[in-house]
Amino acid sequence: MTLMNFRSIKHLIHERLISTEQSYKYSLLVKVGVVADVWRTWYVELPDRMVAVTYPLLQQWTQQEDISISDLEAAAAENDSVGFTIRSMSDVLGFLHDPELPEMYVVSNESGQFGAVAVLNNAVQKKLQDIFPGGYFVLLSSVHEILAIANDTSDVDQLAFMVRSINREQVSVDDRLSDHVFTVDHGRLAVAV
User: Fold this and answer.
1) Whole-angstrom Cα distance, residue 92 to residue 145?
2) Parallel, antiparallel, or unpaired: how do β-strands 136-142 and 181-185 relate?
3) Cα gap 107→117, rounded to integer Å
4) Each residue of 111-157: pLDDT tens digit?
5) Where do the structural domains in the chain lie, given as residue ranges?
6) 103 near 91, Cβ under 8 Å?
7) Banded model confidence at residue 185, pLDDT cuts 50, 70, 90
8) Distances (CA, A) of 156 to 1, 102, 108, 187
9) pLDDT digits (tens, 9 = 90+) for 79-93
């Protein structure tokens, strides 16, 4: 399968989030800023490997078929429109939830690969709003998943400290997204702290 023809592989294009650090490391990636230190980028999921969408590849597509970043966004939006999971942390870890503590939810895609992009999905945001009618904080725990917790049961400064600590101690640099805590405001991520 050749990557030279966008139309033949557009059903294999997916979106992912990366950190600013990763965007500098892979400077040829096609990327668009989301908020703070988080960027959107795209990849082609082939049966035997994933291929990053780089500016040289986009340039080839543009010369052949007049493909733009908007076309990448549209293809990925269609391919990534379903298949996200929202599970309580207690279910993920297999223990009973203590009703005295706020419940945290883990959001990803079915494959568990690059599932943090779920935070940008309108259907996911709607489901999280249904779970947290008073609003929620988003923790970009890695490129693979996000965490959501009610904003009225959590201290944002404590959450930010927790995110920084976990990023330094448990998340590899390649999988790290952000030390910030976010909210979702009118469908867009916003920095809470």
Assistant:
1) 12
2) antiparallel
3) 9
4) 889 999 999 999 999 999 999 999 999 999 899 999 999 998 778 99
5) 6-79, 84-191
6) no
7) confident
8) 47, 13, 22, 20
9) 998 889 999 999 988
Structure tokens at 119: 């935070």
In this structure, what token pair is assigned to residue 88? 């309580």
147: its two tokens: 């965490």
End-to-end Cα separation, the chain, in angstroms: 45
The secondary element (H helix, E strand) that includes residue 76 is: helix 69-79
- CA dist., res. 124 & res. 108, Å (int): 10
182: tokens are 């976010």
Query: Which structure tokens are listed for 16?
Result: 């992912």
Provide the token pair at 114. 């690059």
The dihedrals phi and psi of 94, each to the nearest 5 degrees, come to 75, 40
Q: Is the dihedral of CA 85, 88, 93, 95 positive or negative?
A: negative
Q: Which residues have a Cβ under 8 Å from the Cβ of 95 and sit 6 or more positions away?
A: none
Burial 69-89 (b: 16+ CB within 10 A, else e): eebbeebbeebbeeebbbeeb
Q: What are phi and psi of 156, to 5 degrees?
A: -60, -35
Q: In which region does residue 2 sit, left (phi positive, over 0), alpha (psi from -120 to 50) or beta (all else)?
A: beta
For residues 96 and 102, the answer to whether their CB atoms sit within 8 Å is no
Q: What pLDDT score was predicted for residue 119?
A: 92
Angle at 144 between CA 162 and CA 80, to 5 degrees: 135
